[in-house]
Design goal:
This protein has 346 residues and is an alpha/beta fold. The chain is built from seven helices and 17 strands.
């Protein structure tokens, strides 16, 4: 019997993942990473154990708080204070789920496969493991998985790829899983409600009074309490009455300036990348469908890996340094790779 280690959060998706693998005949064991030493984090571990107990499977809590603090929380804070907009889920996937948890699952617990509740499909094509979109387009999570290399993809499985979210909830109710009524959370896990990212950053960095500047004219339009509270494309929260709607066009971290302007000023055709990762070997130049944020329709363009450059066929709005730029095959939609947006070219 093959052993499957499931990364369990106590939520709906990971619970049903464990159930489905158990039904397929795997010896299933659950692991939960203790990300923080907070009541909320201990609740996550307790909820996961409750699900594991209901399934009659072994469950282990692994303290990853040191790595999580260094690789995810510090990364998040450092990005904002340097004028970037981070994507902590991608770093958590690389360093925590497919870092410490994956390694312990393989080395300590002798897992044959590692499973999570992500909505994506892994296929082996001519000996190469590729990631494809899940059935439920609204839940597809390829964007957050571009840093996963071949050595982990070949030992990873995503059982939920062929299900819609509504079907997953039905399965949980059918088997009376403790997580059957769990609400879906898209919040940053280390900023629990009622705290917001804005309040978290204010508590961390304090108020740093700066100015709003109209980018096209250089005119000072108002004052703010810290550039790190604003991200490119943002409209709400600027708080300036003006003849036309204002959007954040950029920030200057050193001068504590937030540049604003018209929406049409927020479009660009080219960006530069850093820290590119590929799911499988590619040519230096290739056409792709490209996302510069998770909740957008992919846009066509050319990826020049030698120059670390992406050129879109048509201008794209709100390209934001610090966010991930992710590439997909225009032929079959599989994930090719991605990188961090270093800066935007006019």
């Amino acid at each position: 019997m093959k052993k499957a280690i499931v990364a369990m959060s106590g939520g709906l998706d990971s619970s049903v993942t464990a159930l489905l693998l158990q039904k397929k005949g795997y010896e299933v064991l659950g692991v939960t990473g203790l990300m923080l030493n907070t009541p909320q984090a201990f609740d996550v571990c307790a909820n996961a154990k409750s699900v594991a107990d209901s399934l009659g499977i072994e469950h282990h809590v692994i303290d990853v708080s040191e790595e999580f603090g260094r690789e995810v929380v510090s990364y998040f804070e450092n990005a904002y204070i340097t004028g970037k907009t981070p994507n902590p889920c991608i770093e958590c996937n690389k360093f925590i789920k497919w870092g410490r948890l994956f390694n312990i699952s393989m080395q300590k617990f002798g897992a044959d496969i590692f499973a999570t509740g992500h909505y994506a499909e892994i296929r082996c094509v001519d000996g190469v493991y590729k990631l494809y979109p899940a059935k439920d387009e609204k839940k597809d999570q390829l964007y957050f998985l571009y840093k996963l290399p071949q050595e982990v993809l070949r030992k990873t499985i995503f059982p939920l790829y062929k299900y819609c979210k509504s079907e997953i909830r039905e399965i949980a109710e059918q088997y009376n899983l403790p997580s059957k009524s769990a609400k879906e959370s898209q919040d940053i896990c280390f900023i629990p409600k009622p705290c917001t990212a804005k309040k978290y950053l204010l508590d961390k960095f304090g108020q740093k009074e700066g100015i709003f500047v109209e980018k096209s004219t250089g005119k000072i339009l108002g004052r703010h309490e810290g550039f790190y509270q604003y991200t490119i494309g943002q409209r709400k929260g600027i708080g300036i009455a003006y003849p036309y709607p204002l959007y954040v066009l950029g920030v200057d971290a050193e001068k504590n300036i937030v540049y604003v302007g018209r929406e049409e000023e927020n479009y660009s055709k080219m960006l530069r990348l850093k820290d590119i990762n590929f799911s499988y070997p590619v040519e230096n130049n290739f056409r792709a469908m490209i996302k510069v944020r998770y909740n957008m329709q992919p846009q066509s363009g050319i990826v020049d890996t030698a120059a670390l450059k992406v050129v879109f066929d048509e201008p794209v709005n709100s390209i934001t340094p610090g966010q991930a730029c992710v590439f997909y095959s225009p032929d079959d939609g599989c994930l090719i790779g991605g990188g961090e947006i270093a800066y935007v070219c006019c």
